[in-house]
Amino acid sequence: MTRRAVVLSLLTGLFLTAMSPAHATGYRYWSFWDRTAGTWTYATQGPSTTVPSDGDVQGFRFAVSEDSADAVTPRGTASFTAICGDTPARDGRKRVALVIDFGTAADAPSGEKPPASRTACAVTPREATTAEVLAAVAGPLRYNSNALLCAIAAYPETGCGEQTSGKAKGTQKAKEPEEKDGGPSVGLLAGLAAVAVLGAAAVWQTRRRRNAP
Predict the structure, then answer these.
(1) d(C-alpha 82, C-alpha 93), whole Å
(2) What is the structure's pLDDT at 125?
């Protein structure tokens, strides 16, 4: 194979790679969050074993994500004062502010529409787990045989942590720039730039051989 053929083969491969969309495996599920110092953090325990305290803020978000590091946080009001400020403290009881984000239409299972996101101030016995707190204000809940939370307020009607072919649009983290519909992706631009560089190199090599004595 000549040098020119090799270069053309590389150009073709890079162009096809740049034009091919990337597909990442994702899972559709309810993620569980704690609000600490004004920031959402992915919960280290499940809602059935976590026991929140009076004044805590916790959140749930339904979305498609690859793993906990890729999960997106609940949206909307996340202030204990805003959610529970009008609920007086009671002896032997605790108040827990909940943010329940049902996600976007892009994250919804086929044929289902996500309800509007909402907040709730749950008043429960002090020993109640987050699962019990959630059930008090957003039932019915649905779990699978492995105690994975599958549905809040009966949403979604079916499915539980199922694998999807890729991450749904609109679930990027807030700090990550989103690509505009109809415009070239970053990968495509990078690939085309590489094609241009190699193309210029090929032209230079051809001219050099022609001008060689």
Answers:
(1) 19
(2) 98
Task: Give the DSSP H or E segment for 120.
Answer: strand 118-125
67 pLDDT band (50/70/90 cuts)?
Answer: confident
pLDDT at 169 over 90: no
Q: What does the DSSP 8-state code read for residue 24? A: -
133: left (phi over 0), alpha (psi -120 to 50) or beta: alpha
Q: State the average pLDDT for the chain.
A: 79
Amino acid identity, position 11: L
147 in Cβ contact with 153 (< 8 Å): no
Supply the Cα-derived Rg of the chain in whole angstroms: 25
Diameter of the chain measured on Cα atoms: 98
Report the alpha-carbon distance of residue 133 to residue 122 in Å, rounded: 6
Is residue 46 a contact partner of residue 147, using CB atoms and an 8 Å limit?
yes
Residue 163's CB: how many other CB atoms inside 10 A?
Answer: 9
Q: How far is residue 13's CA from residue 195's CA, in Å, rounded to a whole number?
A: 9
Q: Which amino acid is at 53?
A: S
Query: 125-151 pLDDT, tens per residue?
Result: 999 999 999 999 999 999 999 999 999
SS3 42: strand
The CA–CA distances, whole Å, from 107 to 123, 131, 153 equal: 30, 23, 17
CA–CA gap between residue 26 and residue 68 (Å, rounded): 11
